[in-house]
Design a protein that fits this description.
about 300 residues; mainly alpha; about 0% strand
Length: about 300
């Protein structure tokens, strides 16, 4: 009986005291004593679960505590960042984001998750610039998980993978970047595409030197970028001189393309395959569809040569 009575009294005390406790928390927050303020705001929040129908002042204290505890964690994160204590900054921004999520504060949740990503970006910069790509991957991957829209960090993560001979992992990151909103992330998408093209060409060149065209096909099968995978596969079958397979794959390869240049590249390869099989009419038709990219002049030359033959 005594224990139950004591617990009830404690609960009633907490309910009646939360307004004063909230005011103390505000005072500490204004004075920059954020750790003390957080403890007081948390105490208000904890006590609020026992209040079935809070009055107006209690509700103000509860709502305010849920708001300002996020602010205080954020302020601690900023202070840690300014001191270049990135681990502490990450911890506090994460606490701010988690608290905001718990209290359905979507704006502050997203803002603090962005800060978490920026902290990982800053933390990983030294390793990346020193070409310590293993460390950079470990750091950037955590930041990317927190904020996948931090495209500067995502591009650095992809580059770290590529430099570490982790081609598929780098391609996955670049592919995800390329799927972002083009109006907002156009520059990052272009940079990701440039990386994909360069490192894919390097990878293909290595396998071509080894005459490992089956290896190229296997590599393409693992790519998330369907357009690039289709183009690489067509090129590999050209290397194998399997022109029938190139013709067989051409329709699906064309459907996978998303740019005029991509479609032109496939049509050029298709025209080459038809030409090798001495199906000149079909070769000319395919070459006439080469309207963009690096093969336009070559396609025109083939058309002219085949027209003379006819």
């Amino acid at each position: 009986m005594t224990v139950v009575a004591l617990m009830g009294a404690t609960s009633l005390f907490a309910q009646s005291d939360i307004v004063a406790l909230f005011s103390q928390g505000l005072g500490n927050a204004k004075a920059g004593n954020f750790t003390e303020a957080i403890a007081q705001f948390q105490e208000v929040i904890d006590a609020s679960w026992d209040i079935e129908e809070p009055d107006a002042n209690q509700q103000k204290a509860i709502t305010g505590s849920k708001k300002f505890i996020v602010t205080c964690y954020n302020k601690l994160g900023v202070a840690a960042f300014n001191a270049k204590n990135y681990d502490e900054a990450i911890e506090n921004f994460t606490m701010a984001a988690d608290a905001a999520e718990m209290f359905d504060n979507v704006v502050d949740m997203n803002k603090n998750r962005t800060y978490v990503g920026q902290m990982y970006q800053a933390k990983g910069a030294d390793a990346f610039n020193s070409e310590d790509y293993a460390t950079a991957i470990a750091v950037f991957s955590k930041g990317y998980e927190a904020d996948p829209r931090n495209t500067d960090m995502a591009l650095n993560l992809a580059e770290s993978y590529f430099k570490s001979d982790m081609y598929q992992e780098g391609m996955k990151i670049c592919t995800k970047i390329s799927q972002l909103n083009a109006e907002k992330f156009g520059e990052a998408i272009a940079a990701a595409q440039a990386k994909m093209d360069m490192y894919t060409n390097n990878q293909v060149a290595k396998l071509q030197m080894a005459n490992d065209y089956d290896g190229i096909i296997a590599m393409a099968e693992q790519l998330d970028d369907a357009a690039m995978a289709a183009k690489i596969t067509m090129q590999a079958y050209y290397g194998k001189k399997d022109f029938n397979k190139m013709i067989e794959l051409a329709t699906a390869a064309l459907e996978a393309q998303v740019t005029d240049e991509g479609r032109s590249d496939i049509n050029y390869l298709l025209g080459v395959a038809y030409n090798e099989k001495e199906m000149f009419e079909q070769a000319i038709a395919a070459m006439k569809n080469v309207t963009a990219g690096n093969n336009v002049a070559n396609a025109q030359a083939v058309i002219e040569a085949l027209t003379v033959k006819e």
